[in-house]
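[step 3/7] fold_predict: job queued, chain A
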Amino acid sequence: MAAASRRSKIGLALAGGGPVGGIYEVGAMAALDEALDGADFTDFGIYVGVSSGGFIAAALANGFGPAKLARMLVENDSDEIFDPESLLHPAFDEYLKRALSLPPLLWSSFRHYLSDPWHLGLFEAFQGLGHAIPAGVLDNTGIDDVLRKLFSAPGRSNDFRWLKHKLFLVATDLDSGESVAFGGAGYEHVPISTAVQASAALPGLFPPVRIDQRYFVDGALIKTLHASVALREGAGLLLCINPLVPFDAVLAAKRTHREDLTHTPEHLVDGGLPVILSQTFRAIIHSRMRAGMARYREEFAGADVVLFEPTRDDAEMFFTNVFSYRGRRRLCEHAYQRTRLDLYRRRHELAPIFARHGIQLNVPVLKDHRRSLLPDKRHPDLAATASALDAVLHDLECWLQAQRGAACRV
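[step 4/7] structure written:
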C-alpha cells in the first residue's frame, strides 16, 4: 500500500519541440523506463504535456509505453504509425477564408486613403490588409483526427474524465495570454485530441484552435515545462524532459573526435533563417525554464524535480531531419543512448533521490553496452558499440583529469 501511495505521487512533465522534441522524449523515456526499477511510465499519477510533449503525455496516459511509441514514430512494423509528414498539409481552408476577406479589406483601405490622401501614407492607409495574411501555414486538424481515432480503440479514452491517471495538456489563450491546463477543473470536457492540437498550435505555423468560443495556441508561449501544474497536484517526484537546449557550435567543434559534425555549418548563420530562428527560440525557452526550475526548488521544497535534456554540443539533436525515416530512427536511438549515459554519469546524485520514492536505479542495465532501443538489422551491434565507446572515452577523460588533480566533469 505504501509503495502504491508513492507511485501515485510520481509525475512526468514533457516540454515541446515539434517532431524532433517528441522523438527525443520517446528515446529518453525508453532509457529511463529500462533503468528505473519501480517506475512504470504508463502508471504515473500525473502527466503534464506541452506542445509535442502533449501528444506523448496523452499517449502515455492511455497506456502506450515508450517502446510502443518508438515503433509508432519511427518503425514501420507497428500496426499504429504516426508519421510527422502527416502534419505537412497546407491550411487551404485558412488560405481561402483570408483570400475571401481581401476584396472588402482592399476596398476599405482604398476608401480610407482617399478620405485624406494628403496626410495618410500608403502604408498607414493599407495596413488593414494584414488581416488577410493566413493565421497559419499548415493544417493542424490532422492532429485531432489521428489522435481521436487512436484514443477511441478499446481500453483507451479521448476523455480526460475517464483516464486512470491525471493528464494536463497546457495551451495559451490567444486573447488573454492566459495559460490553460486542459484536464483541470472546468476544462475536463474538452476532447484530449483537441487539447493536444491546441497545445501544439505554434503561432505562424499552425492556425489557433477554437474551443468553446476561445482561441488557443502553443502552451510554450508562457512556460516551457509547466511543471508547477504537476507539483501543485502533489507530485513528490517529478521527472522532466526538455528536448530543446541552445546549441553550442564552439563546444561541438572541440569534440569532433566524439561527434560526426560533417553536416554542421561552421557558423549557425550559414544554416539560414530556420537555423537562426531555432537557436533563438531554444535560447529563450531554455533560459526561462532554468529560472522556473530555480523557483520550483523554493516553492515546492518538499518535492524532488529531476530534469533530463540534451547537452549543448548535441549536433545530432539540433540538425536532425525528422521528416526522413533514417533521421527519426537515428535520433530516437541517439536519445536513448545519451540518456543511458547521462543516468550512469549522474548515478551517485540520482540514486538517493529515486530511492526516496521507492525507485531503484539499475546500474547493471546502464553498464550493459549491448542494449539498443532500435537495433539496426544490418549492423545490430553498431549502436551498442558507439555507446560503449562513449562510456570508455568518458572514463578515460575522468582518469586524465584525476591525474591532473581536477574533478571529473559529469
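[step 5/7] annotate
Strands lie at 10-14, 36-37, 46-50, 166-173, 179-182, 209-211, 214-218, 237-241, 304-308, 360-361.
The radius of gyration is 23 Å.
exit 0
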